[in-house]
């Protein structure tokens, strides 16, 4: 009988710790998200082009930029006119011609060399 009481006590303590962890994570995540959304820097979209290499569109203040992100470096690719960025009403999805963006970046990089 004593073993069953100990088992139930351990399960209750585990569930309590699990619940505290869940709500703490939700609170911290919500706080971090609110700090990100109110800043002057926003990641609009990103796409993986190779393992540990990404192309991202970011907004800094009122300008949009394409950047290349690697394991140890960040490379500025080009500025994107605001007219080329089309956001849906939800504010989370961006529509753009990715092929055109990559071509602009290639020509910009080609001119820089």
Your description of this structure?
The radius of gyration is 23 Å and the shape is elongated. With 113 residues, it is of the alpha+beta class. The chain has a 4-stranded antiparallel sheet. The model has no long low-confidence stretch (mean pLDDT 82). It contains 2 helices and 6 strands. The relative contact order is 0.09. A hairpin with a 6-residue loop joins β5 (86-87) and β6 (94-95). The chain is 45% helix and 32% strand. The protein has 2 domains: 1-38; 41-112, no CATH class.
Give descriptors for this structure:
4-stranded antiparallel beta sheet, two-stranded antiparallel sheet, 32% strand, alpha+beta, 113 residues, 45% helix
């Amino acid at each position: 009988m004593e073993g069953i009481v100990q088992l139930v006590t351990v399960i209750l303590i585990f569930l309590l710790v699990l619940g505290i962890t869940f709500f703490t994570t939700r609170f911290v995540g919500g706080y971090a998200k609110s700090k990100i959304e109110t800043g002057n820097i926003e990641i609009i979209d990103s796409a993986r082009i190779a393992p540990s290499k990404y192309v991202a569109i970011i907004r800094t203040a009122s300008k949009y930029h394409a950047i290349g992100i690697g394991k140890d470096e960040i490379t500025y690719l080009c500025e994107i006119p605001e007219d080329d960025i089309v956001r849906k009403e939800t504010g989370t999805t961006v529509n753009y011609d990715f092929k055109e963006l990559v071509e602009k970046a290639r020509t910009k990089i080609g001119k820089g060399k």
